[in-house]
What we know:
With 196 residues, the protein is of the alpha/beta class. The chain has a single domain (2-178), classed as Class I glutamine amidotransferase (GATase) domain (Rossmann fold). The protein is 34% helix and 22% strand. The chain has seven helices and ten strands. The strands form two sheets. An eight-stranded mixed sheet has the order 3-4-2-1-5-6-10-9, sandwiched between helices. Helix 5 (122-128) links the parallel strand 7 (114-115) and strand 8. Helix 1 (13-23) runs parallel beside helix 6, helix 4 (100-106) runs parallel beside helix 5 (122-128) and helix 6 packs across helix 7. The longest helix is centred in the C-terminal third of the chain and has 14 residues, at 154-167. The N and C termini lie far apart (36 Å).
Amino acid sequence: MIVNILLFNDFETLDVFGPVEVLGRVAGYELKYVSWSGGIVKSRQGTMILTGNLNDMDKNGILLVPGGQGTRPLVQETEFIADLREAAAASCWCLTVCTGAALLAVTGLLDGLQATSNKKAFSWVVSVNEAVNWQPKARWCVAGKYYTASGVSAGIDMALGFVADRFGNSVAESIAENIEYIWHDKKQEDPFAVKA
Length: 196
C-alpha cells in the first residue's frame, strides 16, 4: 500500500512526520511525498522535502493531507482543489491532519460527513464549508474512507487509530510503545476542545 503524503509550502512539520512515524512502521506500507507541481517544498519550520508531482502519483493508496499556514491560500486555488478532489476521491483512504481538513472540505467530499480539525483554527475551518458535519469535541473522526484529526499532535493519535482499524488494537499499541508515545485513543474526546 502506497502512502502518498501531500505537501505544500508552509505545511506544519509534525502534521506530517507524526503520522509518518506511525504509518512508516506498518509492514507493506511505502511512503511517497508529493506536491501540486513536484520539486522541493518547505515546511513552516524550514524542513525541505523533495516531492513528486501529485498528478503523476499512483492514486490507489492512502492520501495524507497535513495542515499548516499554507492551507490558507490553497483553499482559494481552484485548480489545486480540483486536483486534490480527484486524488482524494480515487484513494482507498484519505487522512487529514489539522487544517488539512479545510482543504478536503473545499472539495465537497466531506459534505454531510462528520469531520474535525484544529480547535484553535476551528472557526476558520468551519467557515470554508458549513455543509460538513463539524465535530468540535472530537480528537479525530472517521467517515467511511475519510479520517480527519484535530490539531498537530492529534495526527499521531489518528494514525494509530487508523492502524487499529485496519490491523487491530494490538498492532497500534505496539507501535505506540515502540515510539514511546502515550496514545490518546478516545477519538470522541479532544482534551484541547474545552480550552478552545
